Amino acid sequence: MVFEDRVFDIPLVKSIFIRKPGHGKLLELEKLVVNSQEKLFKLTRVLLKTYVGSVWLCVTLYLCGPIYQMCVTKDKSLRLLAFDMWFPYGLEDFRVYVATFIFHAYAGYLCCIAYPGLQSTIILFVGQIIRQLQILTFILNNLDEIAKELVGKRGELWQETCIQIFSQCVDHYIQTKRFSNKLNVICQPFYLALIVVATMLVCVCSVKIAISDKLSPDTMKYYVHELCFVLVVLMFCYLGQQVDNECEKLEAAVTEKWYLFNSSHKTNIRIFMMAMCQKMPIYIYGSITLSLQTFTWFIRTGMSFFTFLMSVLED
């Protein structure tokens, strides 16, 4: 679906790249197929580079912050703070400390590649689903004009061409929906873990910022850490919302200009509408889906936990 463009499974699209049309909706469709693929890969590369840079900065601040504080204050006990996530078996020997610190830094920077790489791959998959829906929507919105450009004029042959193109779109939608369902089953535990972990970390980072010096170098890591998780959750929720929006646009395109077609085509429209009734929701848990409403819930829940923890600390 990603590296082998499945949109060429649609015979109409394959024939366009063979015929090389010079004008009209066929040319627009050709440009849409090419430009949307390039735009998707370019966007994913930008997101990956930005995300890797942000995670690298966050890990560097967590690792080097305590070392910086130790050098400034001359307090060697602060070097323990560089091992917040994993504690070594001994720190008395400085050589053991250095070896352990290097291993800890290696593991942290390895996560800078693995974790953003996993998330960028999922973003690329979901983005490809959105792209397939956009292409189907364009074809169905301009079905009568595309068929007219293929056969020359409206008539019996034009009606048959419309039915054939419509059937190709139905087949491709079913294929895309099947891929979306498989991806959803595989990634659902990841979505749930992301929301839960991000909620807790955003809350903890907010508390750390609230009780610390707001502009100290040590507090910067909490700003970066919180911002990273908020943006990641926002990105996935936006993608889930975009899939839902594209399904609605496709549903509207299916019934576009239905009055131009014969009874056989109208029957196919009703069948397609039945197939589209469930859309392609990206489930997190149960009936909860990835959407902008979920992001709003995520922010509200994080702030509620933050208020609760601050009240406990004040008491």
TrEMBL record:
Q: InterPro entries, alphabetically?
A: 7tm6_olfct_rcpt
- Tell me the membrane topology, using the record's own terms: Multi-pass membrane protein
The UniProt entry lists the main location of this chain as membrane
Q: Where in the cell is it found?
A: Cell membrane
Its GO CC terms are: plasma membrane
Give yes or no: UniProt keyword Transmembrane: yes
Superkingdom, taxonomy of origin:
Eukaryota
Q: Which UniProt keywords apply?
A: Cell membrane, Membrane, Olfaction, Receptor, Sensory transduction, Transducer, Transmembrane, Transmembrane helix
Gene Ontology terms describing biological process: signal transduction
Membrane-spanning intervals of the chain: 46-68, 94-115, 190-211, 223-241, 282-299
Q: Which molecular-function annotation in GO is an example for this chain?
A: odorant binding
Q: What is this protein called?
A: Olfactory receptor like protein
**Organism this protein belongs to:** Danaus plexippus plexippus
